[in-house]
Amino acid sequence: MIEGILIGLTTALTFQNIFMVMIGCFFGTIIGMLPGLGPMTAIALMIPITYGFDPATGLILMAGVYYGAVFGGSTSSILLNAPGVPGTVATSFDGYPMAQQGKAGKALAIAAWSSFAGGTLAAIYLLFMAPSLSKVSLSFRSPDYFALMILGLTAIAAFSSKGQFIKAMMMVVLGLMLASVGQDSLSDITRFTFNNMNLTDGISFVLVVMATFAMSEALTIILKRNDPTAAAKQVSLTELGSIRINKEERAKMLKTIPRTSIIGFIIGVLPGAGATIASFLAYGMERNLVKDEEKEKFGKGSVHGLAAPETANNAACSGAFVPLLTLGIPGSGTTAVMLGALLGFGIQPGPRLYMTNPEIFWSVIMSMYIGMVILLILNLPLIPYIARILAVPKNYLIPLILFFSITGIYVMSFNNFDIYLMIGIAVIATFMRLYDFPMPPLILAFVLGGLMEENLRRSLLLSDGSWTFLWDRTLTACILATTILIVGWQIYKTFSKKN
Amino acid sequence: MNINTTKIISLLFFIFSAFYLYTAYQIQVFAFDENAPFNARTFPIYLGYAGLFFSGLKLILPDPNTIKVEHKTLEYKKTAILVLIAIIYGATILKVGYFLTTSIFLIASYYFLGERRWLLMFMLSFPFVAAFMYLLHGVLDIYLRDPFLKMLGVMG
Hints:
The structure holds 2 protein chains of 2 kinds. By secondary structure, chain A is mainly α. Chain A is built from 22 helices and 2 strands. Chain A has a two-stranded antiparallel ribbon with strand order 1-2. The longest helix of chain A is centred in the first third of the chain and has 34 residues, at 104-137. By secondary structure, chain B is an all-alpha fold. Chain B folds into 2 domains: 5-68; 73-152, no CATH class. Chain B has helices at residues 5-25, 42-60, 76-96, 98-112, 118-123, 126-139, 147-152. In chain B, helix 3 (76-96) runs antiparallel to helix 4 (98-112) and helix 4 runs antiparallel to helix 6 (126-139). In chain B, 28% of the residues are buried. At the A-B interface, helix 8, helix 9, helix 18, helix 19 and helix 20 of A face helix 1, helix 2, helix 3 and helix 4 of B.
C-alpha cells in the first residue's frame, strides 16, 4: 500500500495535476454555487476538456470539480436559501438562518472547515478500505455484477425519486433503452438505428449527460424565470460579516465532525444513496445526539446543524468513489458521469484497476487530500468575492451553459445530427423535469446499460439460459434480497402514505 | 377539464415502450444465434416489457402526489426562441465555422434573453470565443473545424 501511496503522490503532486485540482476546485465551486447547477453539470461541462489530458489528470480534474461543486452548493444554500445541489439542502436549514442573523461569513467558514474535515477524514477511510475491497471484489462473478447493477439502479431510483419510485424506475428503463441503441457489442448487429448511420456507434454518453443535465437545467432556469416560488430571498452579498470561528463553536464542530464523517462515508459507499441522504441522516442523527438546549437551536442557526450535513455530504462524495474504483460500478449519478468519462479514456474501472493502472487508482485518492486542502485555501479567503458570482445575471449564464454543452458535442463528433439529438433530448428532459421525473437514474442506467447486458449475457450463457444463476451463489442471492427489500420498502411507503 | 400530465407522459412512455418492444422483436440475429439463450434482441425485449410494466403501473395506480405546474408563470416563448437559436447554431456550425457561429449564437441568446448592454455582450462573445478557441485548439490541441477562419488564413 505504501508503494501505491507513493505512486499516487508522485502522480498527484506534479505541477500539472496540482494546477488541475486548483482549476477543478475553482470552477466546481463557481458552477456548484449557481442554483440549479450541480456537480453532474459541472463535471459534464468539463468532460470535453479532460479529453485533452492523460486519464489520471483528467480524473483528478473531475474529482476537483466534484468537491468544488459540492462546496459551492453550500454557498448558495447559506446565502440564498437556494441549494445548488440536493446534497446541500440540509445545509440551508441552519446556514441560512445564521446568514440572516448577519453571520453569513461565519456560516460559510463553518461550512468550509466542515467540508474540509469531512472530505479529508473520508479520504483516509477510502485509503484503507479501497484496496481491501478491491481484493474482495476480485471474487465477484458475472451474476454478482448483474445483481449489483440491479441493486444500484433500484437504489438510486428509490433514493432520488422524492416518493415517486415508479417514475424513477421509468427513467431507469429509458436510460437502459437509450444505451441499447447502436451495435450490439458481441455480434455487431445494429439495433434501433433505423438505418441512420449516425446512430451505428450508439448515442454518446457525453451527449446524454449534456442534454439531460447542463442543457435541460439551463432551459429549466429560463422556463421558470418568472416562477414566484423560485425567487431567491437574498442576503447581502457584500457584507458577510467575520469568517472567524470562536472557541465554543470550534468545540461544537470537533464533536460533530468525526461522527458525521463516518455516517457520511458509509452512506456514500452504498449504491444509490449519496450526499443527499447522507446530509439529511447526519442532520437528523446530530439533532438526536446533542443536548436539549442545543436541540432547540436546530433550524435557527445551530453550529451542529450546519457542520453535520456539510461534513456528511463531503464524506459521502469520497465514499461514492469506493464502488466506482473497486467494483467499476458507480454509486451515484456523479460517479456514473465519471465512469463514462473513464470508459471514454479506454479505462475500465474495477478490481483490476488497482493492479493495471495503479497510478490512476492512487493518484485519485491522493488528489482528494490535495483537493481538500486547496479547496480550503482557495475558498476561505475568497468567500466574499466568490459570493458575488451569485449575482451573475442569467442573461449571460444561460447562453454560456448552452455554448459549453454544444461545444462539448461539436468537438467530439463534428456532426450536426448529434447537436440536434442533444437539443431534442434536452427539450424532452426539461419537460419531464417539470413533472418531477428524476434524471440521475437515467444517467446511471445509461452508463450501466452496456455492462449490465454483458453480465446478463455471460450469466445466461453459463447457466444455459436458466435464471437460476440469480440464487445459485450466496452473494448474488444476498444482493438481490437487498434489492427486494428496497423495492418492498418503497411499496410499503407508497401504500402507507395513501392510507 | 383538469388533465393529469404525469398520466399523459406515462401513456406516451407506454406507447414508446410498445414500439420499442415491437422493434426489438424485429432485430435481425444470425441464424445460429436464433435459439441461443442470449442474443442481440434478448436484453431489449426485457427492457420493452419493463417499460410497459412501469408505465402501465403509473397509468393504473392512483396518483396522490399530482404535480401541478403553473403554466402561466413559465417562459415558454423565450425558451422556444433559445431552442430555435441553438438549432440554427447547430445547423450552421459546420458550414460557417466555430468562431463566427458561436459568437453570433452568444450575442443572439443574450439579446433574446433581454440583455441590451452591447459592449458587455460583445466582450462575452467574440473575444471570449477567441480565447476559448485558443485554449482548446492552441493549448489543449483539440481540433476545431473552422472553414471561415481557414478562408481568412487565421487557422490552418
